[in-house]
């Protein structure tokens, strides 16, 4: 069946990040979300990264992964 995501959006790249110690959004919900995403778009384009010991926050490691993802998928600005 055709879902709400079609055309070029089927091939969008997604980076989902989650701390494995998040007390507000348990890691299980992140895992369920990424599986749902993979059922809606090309699963090869979905990346799920977890960060050991990270709570409901961010880390330098996560921000470096986000930067790398942006550098890979967006054209450079002159």
From TrEMBL:
Question: What catalytic reaction does the record list?
Answer: a 1-(9Z-octadecenoyl)-2-acyl-sn-glycero-3-phosphocholine + H2O = a 2-acyl-sn-glycero-3-phosphocholine + (9Z)-octadecenoate + H(+); 1-hexadecanoyl-sn-glycero-3-phosphocholine + H2O = sn-glycerol 3-phosphocholine + hexadecanoate + H(+); S-hexadecanoyl-L-cysteinyl-[protein] + H2O = L-cysteinyl-[protein] + hexadecanoate + H(+)
GO biological process per UniProt: fatty acid metabolic process
> Which residues belong to any copy of the Phospholipase/carboxylesterase/thioesterase domain?
6-73
Q: What Gene3D superfamilies does this protein's entry cite?
A: alpha/beta hydrolase (3.40.50.1820)
Keyword Acyltransferase attached: no
Is Thylakoid set as a keyword in this record? no
Q: Which domain of life is it from?
A: Eukaryota
Give the record's keywords alphabetically. Answer: Acetylation, Cell membrane, Cytoplasm, Endoplasmic reticulum, Fatty acid metabolism, Hydrolase, Lipid metabolism, Membrane, Nucleus
User: What class does this enzyme belong to in the EC scheme?
Assistant: hydrolase
Q: What is its main location?
A: membrane
Name the Gene Ontology molecular function terms of this record: carboxylic ester hydrolase activity; palmitoyl-(protein) hydrolase activity
Protein family according to the UniProt entry: Belongs to the AB hydrolase superfamily. AB hydrolase 2 family.
Quaternary arrangement and interactors, per the entry?
Answer: Homodimer.
Supply the name of the protein: Acyl-protein thioesterase 1
Q: Which organism is it from?
A: Origma solitaria
Q: Which gene does this sequence derive from?
A: Lypla1
């Amino acid at each position: 069946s055709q879902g709400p995501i079609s055309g070029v959006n089927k091939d969008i790249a997604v980076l989902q990040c989650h701390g494995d110690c998040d007390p507000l959004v348990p890691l299980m919900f992140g895992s369920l979300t990424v599986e749902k995403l993979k059922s809606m778009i090309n699963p090869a384009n979905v990346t799920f990264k977890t960060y050991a010991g990270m709570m409901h926050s961010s880390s330098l490691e996560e921000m470096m992964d986000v930067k790398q993802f942006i550098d890979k998928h967006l054209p450079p600005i002159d």
